[in-house]
Amino acid sequence: MNPQTRERLNKILGRIPLHVVIIILCLLWILPTLGLLVTSFRPVQDVNESGWWTVLSERGGNVAYETYCASCHGPAGDALPAADLSDPEFISQYRRSIQISATFNNEYDGEIHIPEDQRPNADELATILTALREGAEGEARPRFWLQNYIDVLAGYRGRLTYAADCEAGNIIPGQRECDFLTDATVSQAAMGRAFINTVIVSVPATLIPIFFAAFAAFAFSWLDFKGRQALFAILVGLQIVPLQMALIPIFRLYVDVGLNGTFLGVWLFHTGFGLPYAIYLTRNFLGSLPMEIFESVYLDGASAWTAFTRLALPLSIPAIASLGIFQFLWVWNDLLVALVFLGGTNPVMTYQIGNMVTSLGAGWHLLTAAAFLSFLVPMIVFFGLQRYFVRGLLGGAIKG
Amino acid sequence: MAALRRKKKPKTKRTVPLIMRQGTVTPWLFVIPALIIIFIYIAYPTLYTGYLSLRNSDSSEWATAACREGETCWGVFENYRYALTSDVMLKSFRNNILWLVIMVPGVTAMGLLFAVLVDRVRYEALAKALIFMPMAISFVGAGVIWGFVYDFPVNPDNPNAPIIGILNAALVSLGQKPVPWLSSPPLINNLALIVVGIWLYTGFGMTILSAAIKGVPDELLEAARIDGASEWMVFWRIMVPLILPTITVVLTTMTIFTLKLFDIIYVMTGGNFDSNVVAVRMYQEMYINFEAGRSAAIAVVLLILIIPVLIYNIRRFQEQEAIR
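Predict the joint structure of the above. Result:
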């Protein structure tokens, strides 16, 4: 080995610990989210019976069957014709696992069914019965399904699945009509409806502040008026005023003028608290443009209005993009404002998920699906427009 | 660090470029709509909340009305007696301090660690995206994610109860007993919640610090290395002093975030098991106990806590403007 190769090899080997540390940290960081994602696609029984990390290993019921039953009944359950475990009719005699444990002391061909020290415990027996039932009926539960998403979209909170309950004809008038589109858009607990509400809240609550901020930012950067610097310094300070300060007064104001529970009320609230940051970010960008380009349009006889619409606005698109992403994610993910001003009248997704966690005790299979549903749009925005997101973060202070 | 010290303002008045003189009315037409909205939603409510904090629970009388003979009373500031001295509030303050003491340095340190580490590898963009991803999702969603990580079996006495929370599963596989992470006050559950906060915000610290690190001239680091400085010394003696202003930004921003923290606690514990914080308490006073006065007083306390950072931000802004 010549010295050069050795040196390169040493360099690569020396960097291995660095890679290991980075990769371990990254894995740790995404592990919780991965668990959520996997769980949201697992059937409810699996979620409650085993950890999500075991999703690719053999199911508990099958493992227990192998341990306790396969030696006599055979791997497929049909080794003993007198007790054919693959026969649906035979299996249907055993509706509860306790009925199976009742047979353990029975003698078959002079031998006890299962000697006392080799018996499965109650939990294992239950999983064995489930596995047998599914095996016999030939419709083994899939490892992954979409039922959790269908359930949360339709606002289903029952013990089975939305599809199963509807197939059985369990319609609850006013709560479950079993027409998916109707249920998803009307039902009080439906994430479908909440998704639509979140979009209705987020889009205008992003566009309105940007609109007003663009005007103000132009004036703060390229127009002169009395108290310009002082006013702007105040805006810088206002960026971090906690919105808790405004909750009670605005809530009372809204009750008086009938804006409580309306989308307009929330749009305006987000506009109010989004504006200082929006103006700040846009002004910093506009102010960094070279003066010459403005000189030239004014020389051509343009008014301030033309300079704004024809020059400043088109040039500040990158800043507006960053700002838009920020404001959009902020509003989309907000809980407090939606909780106070919309509540259950027009529930958004964060509100619904919060409700599922705190009051109704919905199972993890539903919670994880609901949470992931609320991540869809932010994830797309984030991974698609990461560049602008980071730029916005670096371009200004932080809103409150 | 001399640049950070405030310079005296130049005596001559700053001249405004001619093109900025577009009449006295036009500029106001551009700013007034935004200013009106800001006034209605931030300025007026702030003053009004200040006033409400001196009124009683339904704002019908001065707070003095809540005083009872023979008991301590702060008169018109009675709500502040509650906000500053009651048991519930003192516990909330204690928790907020715990959050501040652990989460603010935690996020900064983790952010710096990631920024320095990923700066040296080719898959920097991917690693950064993974760390940063939690910033894009809602706190409520993060609450669900971590609630699942911390899951504790409903009937822990049953030895065969399946353990589906990964953290407790790890403990059990090490031969330990599962821990009810979110209902073990006051240290374990608060720490468990703070971990969620650090997980969420490290991406933020990393992004800002990473940009600052890339701004440090390579020649400077190389020169030090050639002079025989170890990586450790290069980091502490050259890198850290140079990016100190950025570190301060992360520290102050995180301080504000931490003080205003609401969603994580509201969703994960609802403030139960001694895990309450000031912002959640403020919400509960208003919408659960219907104590508008107390709620307003807590909001004012929150604002007062934030004012030093607010002034610092304005100063920093004015310094930057002076350099421009």
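Chain A touches chain B through 109 residues (CB under 8 Å).
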